[in-house]
Design goal:
The chain has 338 residues and is α/β, with parallel strands linked by helices. The chain contains eleven helices and 15 strands. It binds adenosine-5'-triphosphate.
Length: 338
Protein backbone atom coordinates (compact mmCIF):
# COMPACT_ATOMS: atom_id res chain seq x y z
CA UNK A 1 0.00 0.00 0.00
CA UNK A 2 1.34 3.41 -0.92
CA UNK A 3 0.49 5.05 2.42
CA UNK A 4 2.43 2.35 4.20
CA UNK A 5 5.50 2.98 2.02
CA UNK A 6 5.14 6.71 2.60
CA UNK A 7 4.94 6.18 6.36
CA UNK A 8 8.07 4.02 6.21
CA UNK A 9 9.89 6.76 4.29
CA UNK A 10 8.72 9.39 6.76
CA UNK A 11 9.85 7.17 9.60
CA UNK A 12 13.32 6.88 8.02
CA UNK A 13 13.41 10.67 7.73
CA UNK A 14 12.50 11.04 11.43
CA UNK A 15 9.13 12.61 10.61
CA UNK A 16 6.63 9.89 11.48
CA UNK A 17 6.41 10.98 15.12
CA UNK A 18 4.64 14.18 14.01
CA UNK A 19 2.08 12.48 11.76
CA UNK A 20 -1.45 12.86 13.08
CA UNK A 21 -3.19 11.91 9.87
CA UNK A 22 -2.13 10.93 6.40
CA UNK A 23 -4.16 10.30 3.28
CA UNK A 24 -3.34 9.63 -0.32
CA UNK A 25 -6.22 10.74 -2.50
CA UNK A 26 -5.35 9.95 -6.09
CA UNK A 27 -1.82 11.30 -6.33
CA UNK A 28 -2.35 14.04 -3.75
CA UNK A 29 -0.88 13.35 -0.36
CA UNK A 30 -2.43 15.14 2.59
CA UNK A 31 -0.47 15.08 5.82
CA UNK A 32 -1.46 16.58 9.15
CA UNK A 33 1.45 17.11 11.51
CA UNK A 34 0.96 17.70 15.21
CA UNK A 35 3.47 20.18 16.58
CA UNK A 36 4.04 21.30 20.14
CA UNK A 37 5.10 24.84 19.24
CA UNK A 38 4.95 27.11 16.23
CA UNK A 39 8.00 27.93 14.12
CA UNK A 40 8.94 24.46 12.88
CA UNK A 41 6.37 24.28 10.09
CA UNK A 42 8.62 25.32 7.24
CA UNK A 43 11.44 22.99 8.19
CA UNK A 44 9.07 20.02 8.53
CA UNK A 45 7.41 20.77 5.23
CA UNK A 46 10.72 21.01 3.42
CA UNK A 47 12.01 17.80 4.97
CA UNK A 48 8.77 16.08 3.93
CA UNK A 49 9.03 17.20 0.32
CA UNK A 50 12.67 16.17 0.24
CA UNK A 51 11.96 12.73 1.74
CA UNK A 52 9.10 12.00 -0.66
CA UNK A 53 10.46 13.55 -3.83
CA UNK A 54 11.17 10.19 -5.47
CA UNK A 55 7.82 8.57 -4.68
CA UNK A 56 6.13 7.95 -8.04
CA UNK A 57 2.61 7.78 -6.53
CA UNK A 58 2.86 11.24 -4.97
CA UNK A 59 2.51 14.19 -7.31
CA UNK A 60 1.24 16.82 -4.91
CA UNK A 61 1.84 17.21 -1.18
CA UNK A 62 -0.37 19.24 1.13
CA UNK A 63 0.89 19.68 4.66
CA UNK A 64 -1.26 20.99 7.50
CA UNK A 65 -0.23 21.63 11.07
CA UNK A 66 -2.21 21.33 14.26
CA UNK A 67 -0.91 22.30 17.66
CA UNK A 68 -0.90 19.44 20.14
CA UNK A 69 -0.75 19.68 23.88
CA UNK A 70 2.00 17.71 25.55
CA UNK A 71 0.27 14.81 27.26
CA UNK A 72 1.80 11.83 28.99
CA UNK A 73 1.49 8.83 26.66
CA UNK A 74 -1.63 6.83 27.42
CA UNK A 75 0.02 3.60 26.38
CA UNK A 76 3.58 2.42 26.66
CA UNK A 77 5.30 1.67 23.39
CA UNK A 78 7.55 -1.34 23.61
CA UNK A 79 9.71 -2.50 20.76
CA UNK A 80 7.76 -4.90 18.61
CA UNK A 81 7.97 -6.61 15.27
CA UNK A 82 4.78 -6.64 13.26
CA UNK A 83 3.86 -9.68 11.27
CA UNK A 84 2.09 -9.40 7.96
CA UNK A 85 -0.86 -11.60 7.11
CA UNK A 86 0.23 -13.44 3.99
CA UNK A 87 -1.78 -12.69 0.84
CA UNK A 88 -3.66 -9.73 2.37
CA UNK A 89 -3.08 -6.41 0.69
CA UNK A 90 -4.92 -4.16 3.12
CA UNK A 91 -5.62 -5.18 6.69
CA UNK A 92 -8.06 -2.71 8.14
CA UNK A 93 -9.18 -2.71 11.75
CA UNK A 94 -12.61 -1.45 12.71
CA UNK A 95 -12.63 -0.27 16.29
CA UNK A 96 -14.74 1.78 18.66
CA UNK A 97 -14.22 3.50 21.96
CA UNK A 98 -17.46 2.12 23.37
CA UNK A 99 -19.57 -0.99 22.99
CA UNK A 100 -22.89 -0.99 21.19
CA UNK A 101 -22.21 1.84 18.76
CA UNK A 102 -22.66 -0.46 15.75
CA UNK A 103 -19.03 -1.39 15.14
CA UNK A 104 -19.77 -4.96 14.00
CA UNK A 105 -22.69 -3.78 11.86
CA UNK A 106 -20.42 -1.24 10.19
CA UNK A 107 -17.57 -3.77 9.77
CA UNK A 108 -19.89 -6.36 8.16
CA UNK A 109 -21.66 -3.90 5.86
CA UNK A 110 -18.41 -2.28 4.77
CA UNK A 111 -16.94 -5.70 4.01
CA UNK A 112 -19.97 -6.61 1.86
CA UNK A 113 -19.90 -3.17 0.22
CA UNK A 114 -16.21 -3.58 -0.68
CA UNK A 115 -16.99 -7.00 -2.14
CA UNK A 116 -19.78 -5.40 -4.19
CA UNK A 117 -17.19 -2.98 -5.57
CA UNK A 118 -15.38 -6.00 -6.95
CA UNK A 119 -12.69 -6.50 -4.32
CA UNK A 120 -11.72 -9.78 -2.70
CA UNK A 121 -12.65 -9.31 0.91
CA UNK A 122 -12.35 -11.19 4.19
CA UNK A 123 -14.01 -10.43 7.51
CA UNK A 124 -12.44 -11.56 10.74
CA UNK A 125 -14.48 -11.28 13.90
CA UNK A 126 -11.83 -10.53 16.53
CA UNK A 127 -14.50 -9.58 19.06
CA UNK A 128 -13.70 -12.72 21.03
CA UNK A 129 -16.01 -12.04 23.96
CA UNK A 130 -19.03 -10.99 21.93
CA UNK A 131 -18.76 -12.43 18.42
CA UNK A 132 -21.69 -11.08 16.44
CA UNK A 133 -20.53 -11.79 12.88
CA UNK A 134 -22.16 -15.28 12.79
CA UNK A 135 -25.54 -13.63 13.51
CA UNK A 136 -24.97 -10.65 11.20
CA UNK A 137 -24.12 -12.88 8.24
CA UNK A 138 -26.56 -15.70 8.94
CA UNK A 139 -23.79 -18.15 9.83
CA UNK A 140 -24.94 -19.21 13.28
CA UNK A 141 -24.06 -22.78 14.29
CA UNK A 142 -21.68 -23.15 11.36
CA UNK A 143 -18.36 -24.90 11.85
CA UNK A 144 -14.96 -24.45 10.22
CA UNK A 145 -12.48 -27.10 9.16
CA UNK A 146 -8.76 -27.17 8.39
CA UNK A 147 -7.05 -27.93 5.09
CA UNK A 148 -4.24 -30.44 4.50
CA UNK A 149 -1.73 -27.90 5.85
CA UNK A 150 -3.71 -27.47 9.06
CA UNK A 151 -4.86 -24.02 8.06
CA UNK A 152 -8.40 -23.00 8.95
CA UNK A 153 -10.66 -22.72 5.90
CA UNK A 154 -12.84 -19.62 6.36
CA UNK A 155 -16.54 -19.81 5.51
CA UNK A 156 -17.88 -17.94 2.50
CA UNK A 157 -20.99 -15.74 2.44
CA UNK A 158 -22.10 -12.72 0.44
CA UNK A 159 -18.82 -12.87 -1.48
CA UNK A 160 -16.74 -12.67 1.73
CA UNK A 161 -14.37 -15.07 3.44
CA UNK A 162 -15.50 -15.09 7.04
CA UNK A 163 -14.03 -16.28 10.30
CA UNK A 164 -15.31 -15.86 13.83
CA UNK A 165 -14.60 -17.42 17.20
CA UNK A 166 -18.33 -18.19 17.14
CA UNK A 167 -17.61 -20.96 14.59
CA UNK A 168 -15.46 -22.78 17.14
CA UNK A 169 -17.70 -22.54 20.20
CA UNK A 170 -20.01 -25.47 20.97
CA UNK A 171 -23.01 -23.13 21.22
CA UNK A 172 -23.94 -19.48 21.08
CA UNK A 173 -24.28 -19.37 24.85
CA UNK A 174 -20.80 -20.72 25.53
CA UNK A 175 -18.67 -17.91 26.90
CA UNK A 176 -15.05 -17.52 25.87
CA UNK A 177 -13.13 -17.90 29.10
CA UNK A 178 -9.65 -17.38 27.72
CA UNK A 179 -7.59 -14.57 29.12
CA UNK A 180 -4.19 -13.05 28.35
CA UNK A 181 -1.78 -15.37 26.51
CA UNK A 182 -4.41 -18.01 25.62
CA UNK A 183 -6.61 -15.40 24.04
CA UNK A 184 -3.73 -13.87 22.13
CA UNK A 185 -2.67 -17.28 20.89
CA UNK A 186 -6.16 -17.96 19.57
CA UNK A 187 -6.35 -14.56 17.91
CA UNK A 188 -2.94 -14.92 16.31
CA UNK A 189 -4.00 -18.31 14.97
CA UNK A 190 -7.15 -16.70 13.61
CA UNK A 191 -5.09 -14.31 11.56
CA UNK A 192 -2.06 -16.28 10.52
CA UNK A 193 -3.10 -19.95 10.41
CA UNK A 194 -5.95 -19.34 8.01
CA UNK A 195 -6.20 -20.09 4.34
CA UNK A 196 -7.35 -16.58 3.37
CA UNK A 197 -6.05 -16.87 -0.17
CA UNK A 198 -5.38 -13.54 -1.89
CA UNK A 199 -7.41 -10.69 -0.43
CA UNK A 200 -7.60 -7.01 -1.32
CA UNK A 201 -9.09 -6.27 2.09
CA UNK A 202 -9.25 -8.09 5.37
CA UNK A 203 -11.61 -6.27 7.70
CA UNK A 204 -10.90 -6.91 11.35
CA UNK A 205 -13.83 -6.37 13.71
CA UNK A 206 -12.03 -5.51 16.96
CA UNK A 207 -13.58 -5.81 20.41
CA UNK A 208 -14.91 -2.45 21.68
CA UNK A 209 -12.61 -0.21 23.68
CA UNK A 210 -8.87 -0.04 24.08
CA UNK A 211 -7.97 -3.10 26.11
CA UNK A 212 -5.13 -5.58 25.91
CA UNK A 213 -6.49 -7.43 22.88
CA UNK A 214 -6.61 -4.34 20.71
CA UNK A 215 -3.23 -3.10 21.85
CA UNK A 216 -1.47 -6.45 21.50
CA UNK A 217 -2.98 -7.00 18.07
CA UNK A 218 -2.01 -3.54 16.96
CA UNK A 219 1.54 -4.11 18.13
CA UNK A 220 2.00 -7.55 16.65
CA UNK A 221 0.12 -7.46 13.40
CA UNK A 222 0.92 -5.26 10.44
CA UNK A 223 -2.26 -3.24 10.02
CA UNK A 224 -2.65 -0.82 7.17
CA UNK A 225 -5.29 1.39 8.67
CA UNK A 226 -7.97 1.77 11.27
CA UNK A 227 -11.56 2.96 11.07
CA UNK A 228 -13.22 4.20 14.23
CA UNK A 229 -16.96 3.88 14.65
CA UNK A 230 -18.85 6.19 16.95
CA UNK A 231 -22.32 7.54 17.56
CA UNK A 232 -22.74 11.28 18.05
CA UNK A 233 -23.41 11.18 21.80
CA UNK A 234 -20.88 12.85 24.09
CA UNK A 235 -20.35 9.62 26.05
CA UNK A 236 -19.33 7.78 22.88
CA UNK A 237 -17.11 10.63 21.70
CA UNK A 238 -15.29 10.75 25.03
CA UNK A 239 -14.22 7.13 24.55
CA UNK A 240 -13.40 7.60 20.89
CA UNK A 241 -10.61 9.95 21.93
CA UNK A 242 -8.98 7.03 23.75
CA UNK A 243 -9.31 4.77 20.71
CA UNK A 244 -7.78 7.48 18.51
CA UNK A 245 -4.91 7.90 20.96
CA UNK A 246 -4.27 4.18 21.00
CA UNK A 247 -4.03 3.83 17.20
CA UNK A 248 -1.80 6.89 17.03
CA UNK A 249 0.42 5.59 19.79
CA UNK A 250 1.02 2.36 17.87
CA UNK A 251 1.35 4.31 14.60
CA UNK A 252 -1.52 2.77 12.71
CA UNK A 253 -2.89 5.35 10.27
CA UNK A 254 -6.46 6.29 11.10
CA UNK A 255 -8.38 6.27 7.83
CA UNK A 256 -11.25 8.13 9.44
CA UNK A 257 -14.31 8.01 11.62
CA UNK A 258 -17.69 6.52 10.71
CA UNK A 259 -20.57 8.31 12.40
CA UNK A 260 -23.25 5.70 13.01
CA UNK A 261 -26.85 6.42 14.01
CA UNK A 262 -26.21 9.99 12.89
CA UNK A 263 -29.80 10.93 12.11
CA UNK A 264 -33.25 9.55 11.49
CA UNK A 265 -35.24 10.15 8.31
CA UNK A 266 -38.97 10.32 9.04
CA UNK A 267 -40.58 7.93 6.55
CA UNK A 268 -43.73 10.11 6.31
CA UNK A 269 -42.22 13.56 5.89
CA UNK A 270 -38.72 12.70 4.69
CA UNK A 271 -37.37 15.19 7.29
CA UNK A 272 -34.03 14.44 8.91
CA UNK A 273 -33.85 14.44 12.71
CA UNK A 274 -30.44 14.59 14.37
CA UNK A 275 -31.55 12.79 17.50
CA UNK A 276 -28.15 12.74 19.22
CA UNK A 277 -26.99 16.15 17.99
CA UNK A 278 -25.48 17.39 14.76
CA UNK A 279 -21.89 18.22 13.88
CA UNK A 280 -20.18 16.84 16.97
CA UNK A 281 -18.38 14.01 15.18
CA UNK A 282 -17.18 16.38 12.47
CA UNK A 283 -15.92 18.75 15.15
CA UNK A 284 -14.13 15.88 16.88
CA UNK A 285 -12.55 14.73 13.61
CA UNK A 286 -11.19 18.14 12.69
CA UNK A 287 -9.89 18.68 16.23
CA UNK A 288 -8.03 15.39 16.01
CA UNK A 289 -6.74 15.89 12.46
CA UNK A 290 -8.79 13.11 10.96
CA UNK A 291 -11.90 12.96 8.77
CA UNK A 292 -15.45 11.68 8.85
CA UNK A 293 -15.68 8.95 6.23
CA UNK A 294 -19.46 9.08 6.28
CA UNK A 295 -22.60 9.28 8.37
CA UNK A 296 -24.99 6.35 8.63
CA UNK A 297 -28.62 7.08 9.52
CA UNK A 298 -30.59 5.17 12.15
CA UNK A 299 -32.80 2.74 10.29
CA UNK A 300 -34.80 0.01 12.03
CA UNK A 301 -34.22 -2.04 8.87
CA UNK A 302 -30.55 -2.33 9.82
CA UNK A 303 -31.32 -4.09 13.09
CA UNK A 304 -34.06 -6.20 11.52
CA UNK A 305 -31.85 -7.35 8.63
CA UNK A 306 -28.90 -7.97 10.94
CA UNK A 307 -31.02 -10.21 13.13
CA UNK A 308 -32.11 -12.11 10.03
CA UNK A 309 -28.50 -12.59 8.99
CA UNK A 310 -28.51 -10.37 5.91
CA UNK A 311 -26.54 -7.11 6.03
CA UNK A 312 -28.64 -4.17 4.84
CA UNK A 313 -26.19 -3.50 1.97
CA UNK A 314 -27.19 -6.91 0.62
CA UNK A 315 -30.90 -6.92 1.42
CA UNK A 316 -31.79 -3.26 0.71
CA UNK A 317 -29.05 -1.90 -1.56
CA UNK A 318 -31.26 1.04 -2.60
CA UNK A 319 -31.84 2.27 0.97
CA UNK A 320 -30.18 5.47 2.19
CA UNK A 321 -28.28 3.51 4.82
CA UNK A 322 -26.90 1.03 2.25
CA UNK A 323 -25.87 3.89 -0.03
CA UNK A 324 -24.03 5.48 2.89
CA UNK A 325 -22.09 2.23 3.46
CA UNK A 326 -21.31 1.93 -0.26
CA UNK A 327 -20.03 5.48 -0.41
CA UNK A 328 -17.75 4.87 2.60
CA UNK A 329 -16.46 1.67 0.97
CA UNK A 330 -15.69 3.65 -2.17
CA UNK A 331 -13.81 6.23 -0.13
CA UNK A 332 -11.82 3.50 1.61
CA UNK A 333 -10.90 2.00 -1.73
CA UNK A 334 -9.78 5.46 -2.95
CA UNK A 335 -7.65 6.05 0.13
CA UNK A 336 -6.07 2.62 0.21
CA UNK A 337 -5.75 1.62 -3.44
CA UNK A 338 -2.22 0.94 -4.57
N1 LIG B 1 -27.53 2.54 11.74
C1 LIG B 1 -28.23 1.73 12.54
N2 LIG B 1 -29.60 1.84 12.59
C2 LIG B 1 -30.32 1.03 13.41
N3 LIG B 1 -29.79 0.08 14.19
C3 LIG B 1 -28.45 -0.07 14.18
C4 LIG B 1 -27.60 0.74 13.35
N4 LIG B 1 -26.32 0.35 13.55
C5 LIG B 1 -26.35 -0.66 14.45
N5 LIG B 1 -27.61 -0.90 14.84
C6 LIG B 1 -28.07 -1.90 15.82
O1 LIG B 1 -27.44 -1.58 17.07
C7 LIG B 1 -27.11 -2.76 17.80
C8 LIG B 1 -25.63 -2.76 18.13
O2 LIG B 1 -24.89 -2.92 16.94
P1 LIG B 1 -23.55 -3.77 16.88
O3 LIG B 1 -23.72 -5.11 17.50
O4 LIG B 1 -23.05 -3.70 15.50
O5 LIG B 1 -22.65 -2.87 17.83
P2 LIG B 1 -21.17 -3.09 18.35
O6 LIG B 1 -20.60 -1.75 18.56
O7 LIG B 1 -20.43 -4.03 17.45
O8 LIG B 1 -21.46 -3.82 19.69
P3 LIG B 1 -20.43 -4.63 20.64
O9 LIG B 1 -19.85 -3.61 21.49
O10 LIG B 1 -21.35 -5.55 21.37
O11 LIG B 1 -19.44 -5.34 19.77
C9 LIG B 1 -27.56 -3.92 16.92
O12 LIG B 1 -28.84 -4.32 17.30
C10 LIG B 1 -27.60 -3.31 15.51
O13 LIG B 1 -28.50 -3.98 14.65
Amino acid sequence: MAVKEIMDTLRDAGLSQFVKDIKLIGSTLEIVYGIKEKGVERELEEKTRQALKDMPDVKDIKVRFVEVREEPPAFSQPMFVRRKVEGVRNLIAVGSGKGGVGKSTVAANLAVALAKLGYKVGLLDADMYGPSVPTLLGLKNQRVYVDENNRIIPLEKYGLKVLSIGFLLPSEDTPVIWRGPMLMKALTQFLFDVNWGELDYLILDLPPGTGDVQLTLAQNVQMDGAIIVTTPQDVALADVRKATAMFREVQIPILGVVENMAYFVCPESGNKYYIFGKGKVMEFASQYGTKVLGSIPIDPQVAEDSDKGTPVVESHPESEVAKAFLSIAKLISDITRR
